[in-house]
Design brief:
single chain; alpha+beta; globular; 8 strands; about 140 residues; 8-stranded mixed β-sheet; 3 helices
């Protein structure tokens, strides 16, 4: 199954502390930083830096037990967390992917930092966590 019109939206890096990581991206690389936002329902704090398809999401766990916290603890240092692609009609894409045998984490879209999102299981992409975001729900920058 091929997802028509998929395009890179952002890459996400998990960090222990946005406050500690942000100066490198903002001050050293000169990337503009958005607002730091907490998403308690997902136990993360996020900030986007850069613009366009070159945007980076810094993702900080808010606790020690969430999936993102466990991911960071297993790796022991900041690392790539996921790659996000914008798609049209996310609900339909998820149905089509499931029908074609692609392993999903989310079978229905859910609220993400910038719109409705869903994750594909890393086994579907040779170990890489893939996030899909519904292009029609992306919040304006």
């Amino acid at each position: 199954m091929r997802i028509a019109g998929a395009e890179l939206h952002h890459v996400s890096i998990v960090v222990a502390s946005i406050a500690a990581a942000l100066p490198f991206y903002r001050d050293t690389l000169g990337l503009e930083a958005g607002e730091v936002r907490e998403m308690p329902d997902q136990a993360v704090r996020v900030v986007f830096v850069g613009d366009g398809a070159g945007r980076i999401e810094l993702l900080e766990p808010l606790d020690d037990v969430s999936g993102v916290a466990r991911f960071l603890a297993q790796r022991g240092k900041p690392t790539l967390h996921h790659v996000c692609f914008a798609v049209d009609d996310l609900a339909r894409v998820l149905r089509d992917l499931a029908t074609s045998g692609i392993e999903l984490i989310d079978r229905e879209p859910r609220r993400g930092a910038e719109g409705m999102v869903a994750f594909l299981h890393p086994r579907a992409a040779d170990g890489v966590l893939i996030e899909l975001i519904d292009r029609a729900t992306i919040a304006p920058e």
